[in-house]
Structure prediction request, 105 residues.
Amino acid sequence: MSRIESLAEYLRAEGRRKLDRVEVRDGGRNARSALALLDAAAYTRSLGDDDPLMAVLVEAGCFGPHGFDDFQPGEQVAGLVRSWESGEPWQLLMAIRFALQGSLT
Prediction:
């Protein structure tokens, strides 16, 4: 599985998890989040492995120590994805990139 596919699969799984989550009076938050994450997963599949985001994810260790494992986000990225409620797919990916770039410096 390529890095892009691995990241897309992670986002898709998080979107599905949100679809399965039932909370009283969430005001549709989980549904909005699920749609945003599923949209981001589809968008991610259109990226190339040479996308600058991939270099940041590799440098941050999100694909293991050598950069060849499945996508494994740290707590910072996982928390960002879990809390993502709406927005364009590229906005989520840029938020991930900026969060990681800030932690690498």
